[in-house]
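To: structure subgroup
Subject: Chain for Friday's discussion

All,

I'm putting the inputs and outputs inline so they're searchable in the archive.
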Amino acid sequence: MRVCVYCSSSSTIHNKYLELATELGSAIGAKNWELVSGGGHISMMGAVARGVRASGGRTIGVIPQNLVDIEFADNDNHELHVVDSMRERKAMMEDMSDAFIALPGGPGTLEELFEIWVGRFLKFHNKPVVILDPFDLYGPLRDLLDHLEEEGFVKPGQQELLYWSTTVEEALLLCQ
């Protein structure tokens, strides 16, 4: 099983998010699953990968060349695919993965989450899409999605294709 994790690469976030990323990575590795990530070594992205490797798992990173050029790459990945663009990165990550987990993050994480969720709704894939949010960071987003559905902008059945979890264990169960 290969699970793709979307998460923050910000260095200005609270340590509890880094601990969550490490916990998720450790659990992925303990299951002998492989991690597919954005290939960076900083913040939550690096913490997930280090957690996977520390528990004996394999990591696969996909990173655009311009991020490699600014020394963002996690060269400890078992596989590191260097691509030309963010679009190519996201496509490769989707193709290589069996499930997706979004951890807390900012605009980049949200963009990846929305793209993979919409792809599932449009039947471009049938892979689980999970939001792991033990701190309720995405509570306002969930409220917004409910409001958008009430107003007719989110189609019936679309939200049911997005799984919400508050624990690592539950998130991994939802991936299966």
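Points worth raising on Friday:
The mean pLDDT is 97.
The longest strand covers residues 58-64.

D.
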